[in-house]
Every structure is written in structure tokens, then in C-alpha cells.
Design goal:
alpha/beta; 14% helix; 16 strands; 12-stranded mixed beta sheet
């Protein structure tokens, strides 16, 4: 009930309060600067913050609604207190180049949580943990950016969340627990490029996503998935768009790619695709199956190391096999 009241309060405040908001006098902003954004809301950028109390003093100084709040170039910020943003309504919160180590749901009051649409944690070289219930605590969240950090692994499972966009790129992630994303009920875009996955790291159910039934985009480019992704990793429901560029893939095995093509075509028809550019495929006899597979048209920018396109291969290319 308290959560519902908080959400209703946010809706009322958003409806009546934004257009009258102004920036406070500069002398009251400590390490922060303020400008009015395109929506007429104050937006704070706080640099070289030594301790969170400096930010807390600004937040509590007559700022009920912010369009955004950026904490940048602040290695002294390593953790955040509970209810760090008091009950301020904030559309977007961004941490960039800080010393932040982790984040949990207690960081946000119900009021702040109910308003937040974008959470951005990027280029924080020591950030190793986003607790699995944070997104679930943010019911209005439209985008979760947690990239260029040091997450290392995704363990356990995210609590149920309707966030449609998650970016976990550039983190050195090596493993994902089974069903980690299974409770992402509206997910459309999952970005996992520039991590350290191998084919064996993505076990059964590691990419199970019960998201948007009509569209699911999964980016796994720039990893080490030399054998692709086992169909079992998706838990029975494949993505509509699967990016496997720059993974060192030398051949497309029928057991992996043949099944993926079958599953993706059955789910989405000709609108599905697997992007395979920059993989230098050998196109040997073990790829002869591609010629007769009804879903071969879903293989996009798949190129043999001698320059032939996989989409153009014919039985003649394998008559020596």
C-alpha cells in the first residue's frame, strides 16, 4: 500500500509541479551546477564530490523534482547511504567515473524509485555489484545502463522487473546463472558485447528471457563464443535478433546454428536474423548442411574466409566432400 501511495504521489507531482521548477542560487549548490533542461526541470551535474553529504545538502535544498542528476569525476564516492536522494523525484540518475562499488535497492526511497526512468552506471572502474532486486524496485524504469564496470559475473536471478532495455556491455563478465533474466517480463533489448563469454560459459537457461513476445534483441558481439551459443542457453525461446559479430567463429555447426535457425524462424519467420560479420568462417565440409536449411536466409553478413558469402553457397561448393 505504501508503494502505491508513493507512486500516486509521484504521478500528481509530475502532473502539476514540473513547469514551476527553478535552479537554486549557485552558492547553495556546493560541488554541483544546475541548468534547466528541455522539459523545464532543473538538472544537476555534480563533479569532484568528496562525500555524499555534499550532495545530500543540495538535494534537501528545495529541489522536489529534477530532470536528471549526474555524479561525475568523483572517485571519492564509493558507496551511497540509504535513501540517498531523499524523496526527490528524479527522471534520470547517472554515475560516471566515480569510485562507486555497488548499489542496492535501499539507495532509493519509494518516491524516488517510482519516478526514476533511467539509471546509468558507467565507467566506474571498481563497480562490481548491482544487487538483483534494484531494477524491481524501480517500476517506471525504461533503461538500465551498467557498462564499462567490473561486474565479472551475473549470479542468482534478477527479481521481477518490467524494464525493457538493459546494457551490461564492457564489464568482463564471464558467467551468467541459469534463469538470471527469466523474470525480466518486458525485456526487448539485452546488450552483452565486449565481455569474456565462451560458448561453454553460457549454459542452459543462462539467457532465458520471458520478455516482449514479439521482439527480443540480444547482442553478444566481441566475446569469445567460438562455437556460437547453444540453443539451450535461451531456455526454449530464442531472440529475434542475435548479434554474434567478432567472436572468432570458424564454422557453423549444424547442432548449434541449425537448431537456432529452426527455432528463430519458427518464432519470428523471415524477420529474425543472426549477424555474423567479422568471424572468418572456414566454410568446410562441416557446413554443407547450410545449403539445404530452410532458415539459411537468417544468416546475415556471414562470410567465408575466402570472401564467399554463406548465403550464396550452393551444392557445388561442397561437391568434393
Amino acid at each position: 500500500m505504501n508503494r502505491l501511495i508513493a507512486i500516486l504521489s509521484v504521478a500528481l507531482a509530475l502532473a502539476v509541479g514540473g513547469s514551476r521548477a527553478q535552479c537554486p542560487p549557485p552558492e547553495t549548490l556546493g560541488p554541483c551546477e544546475c541548468h534547466v533542461d528541455a522539459k523545464g526541470l532543473p538538472a544537476l551535474v555534480c563533479r569532484r564530490v568528496a562525500g555524499w553529504q555534499e550532495v545530500g545538502d543540495v538535494i534537501n535544498n528545495g529541489l522536489p523534482h529534477l530532470g536528471s542528476m549526474d555524479i561525475v569525476a568523483s572517485p571519492g564516492i564509493t558507496d551511497l547511504p540509504s535513501l540517498a536522494f531523499a524523496d526527490t523525484l528524479i527522471d534520470a540518475i547517472r554515475f560516471y567515473d566515480t569510485g562507486l562499488l555497488y548499489m542496492n535497492r535501499n539507495t532509493f526511497s519509494d518516491v524516488t524509485a517510482a519516478a526514476l526512468k533511467s539509471l546509468y552506471i558507467k565507467h566506474n572502474s571498481e563497480f562490481y555489484s548491482l544487487e538483483n532486486d534494484v531494477a524491481a524496485h524501480l517500476p517506471a524504469l525504461e533503461a538500465l545502463y551498467v557498462s564499462y564496470n567490473t561486474l565479472g559475473s551475473l549470479s542468482g536471478a534478477m527479481a521481477e522487473t518490467a524494464v525493457p532495455y538493459i546494457d551490461l556491455s564492457h564489464n568482463g563478465i564471464k558467467s551468467i546463472s541459469a534463469n538470471y533474466f527469466a523474470s525480466c517480463t518486458a525485456l526487448k533489448v539485452l546488450l552483452l558485447p565486449f565481455n569474456e563469454f565462451t560458448t561453454s560459459d553460457l549454459g542452459p537457461g543462462s539467457l532465458t528471457i520471458n520478455g516482449d513476445p514479439d521482439d527480443l534483441y540480444v547482442d553478444l558481439a566481441w566475446n569469445s563464443l567460438t562455437e556460437g551459443v547453444q540453443p539451450s542457453a535461451f531456455g526454449g525461446r530464442p531472440p529475434k535478433e542475435l548479434l554474434l559479430s567478432h567472436n572468432g567463429i570458424a564454422t557453423l555447426s549444424e547442432s548449434v546454428f541449425g537448431q537456432l535457425l529452426t527455432d528463430m524462424e519458427a518464432a519470428y519467420g523471415s524477420e529474425a536474423y543472426i549477424l555474423l560479420d567479422h568471424n572468418q568462417l572456414a566454410c568446410g565440409c562441416d557446413m554443407a548442411w547450410v545449403v539445404d536449411h530452410p532458415g539459411r536466409g537468417l544468416l546475415q553478413q556471414a562470410e567465408c574466409e575466402d570472401g564467399r558469402l554463406v548465403s550464396g553457397l550452393t551444392p557445388v561448393d561442397f561437391e568434393h566432400c
